[in-house]
Amino acid sequence: MSRTYDVVVAGAGAAGLAAATSARQTDPSASILLVNGEDRFPYKRTKVSKAIADGFSADEFAVHPEEWYRDRQIERLDGVSITAIDTDTRTISFADGAEDVTYGRLVLALGGDPLFPRIVRPHEQGSFFVLRTARDGEVLRERAHRAKSVLIAGMGVLAVELAYQLRKMGKNVTLAGATPQLMPRQLNARAGEILEDVLAANKVKMLFQEEILSFERNKKNWTVEMLKHAAHYDMVVFCIGVSPRTGEARAAGLTVERGIVVDSALRTSDPHVYAAGDCAQHPDGTVTYLWHSAEDQGRVAGVNAAGGDASFDELPHRLKSRVFDQYVFSIRKPREPWEFEVDEFENERQFYALYWDSDGTLHGAVMMNDEDYAPTLEAAVREGWDRTRVLGALELDDE
Ligand SMILES: Cc1cc2nc3c(=O)[nH]c(=O)nc-3n(C[C@H](O)[C@H](O)[C@H](O)COP(=O)(O)OP(=O)(O)OC[C@H]3O[C@@H](n4cnc5c(N)ncnc54)[C@H](O)[C@@H]3O)c2cc1C
Description:
Blueprint lengths: L2 E8 L3 H13 L5 E5 L29 H6 L2 E5 L3 E5 L4 E4 L6 E8 L3 E3 L14 E2 L3 H12 L3 E5 L3 H12 L3 E5 L12 H13 L2 E4 L4 E6 L4 E5 L3 E4 L1 E4 L3 E3 L2 H5 L8 E2 L11 E3 L4 E2 L9 H15 L12 E6 L2 E6 L9 E6 L4 E6 L5 E7 L5 H10 L3 H7 L6
Parallel strand pairs: 1-2, 1-6, 2-3, 6-18, 8-15, 9-10, 9-15, 10-11, 17-19
Antiparallel strand pairs: 4-5, 5-6, 7-16, 12-13, 13-14, 20-21, 21-24, 22-23, 23-24
Helix pairs in contact: 1-7
The chain binds flavin-adenine dinucleotide (FAD).
Flavin-adenine dinucleotide binds next to helix 1 and helix 7.
């Protein structure tokens, strides 16, 4: 007979760990199972792309030690993946012969799967590298030791962080992507230019508005044909984004669009199943793709799965990154910047782009190299400060 838990959390990343924690806080006597698909304690994924050059030990980034789970009676199933969900019998099946379990409430916190370009067929994906898990980071680091040249497909934050790490390892690094600038989701054009100059000065080659047309494996390396270039690389890494992991939910009959569709309580189309983090699609159609947001969602889903009553209001969360000698900070940079009034401030090292709502309050911001003011800027966006207060607090000259 299968074991039964009041709450099962599938996936032990930012959202899953937060869900198990808040479920325990909400119901001290609930039986809770956390299904951890990875081969180590739940860990801070964001650290992986910052530690490729130096390397890291198996549990270096663990959020909690073993006793933390024991003390809270959160049972963990490590290195096991869920393969199927039966929402009628509320049963979950696992790979590798682990016994089925049944749940009172289920939280899906399965994150996202790295994307590959269409020209890479599924059976070829293993020949290339991605960076989603700590294991991916270890494999990539190991191979990079033997490589001279690396092509990173992508221009986003992960691609830029990896370029920095690989330059620290002394590799020849090329970034290639479809966009006309670096980190277009987080940076405006000017900040992208500043960062581009820094990468160029650090000998990172950048191929903008480029498309990979084909790969050919030679004895020692790859020949990569692009729209405007062709070159040889020892390894190729894809950092072109993630797609919400939805296969299990779709097969279970839950409503799935881009992600697993949830309401403001993070409930899916099945009232006994919740979804949180990078696998969840919110009522406004967004998927968040940020660590702190995944944690917030996990907390809400965990409370509700344990019988509480919480709702998810998306707070603006910042993304920060340190690459080369730059500190890069971005919070709620609008996707349609032309709909906002924007002010830019720049001196030799620092840069700000401030986006104003029509009522004169701060909507979002991009900042470089003024780290001491990051908390102020975050508060200003979250609390919607007006222009005078923002410029005064950031000591920016309104000339
Ligand atoms: C290298 C890297 C660096 C990043 N840096 C930043 C940053 O600086 N700031 C920021 O805000 N965000 C960053 N992100 C994004 C951030 O890490 C994610 O938004 C966040 O981890 C999402 O949390 P999640 O719990 O939804 O998913 P995840 O953290 O991906 O966790 C999902 C878990 O579910 C597991 N899983 C998947 N399928 C199954 C299955 N069938 N059965 C069991 N388990 C399964 C996965 O293995 C994984 O452990 C980074 C991402 C990466 C990859």
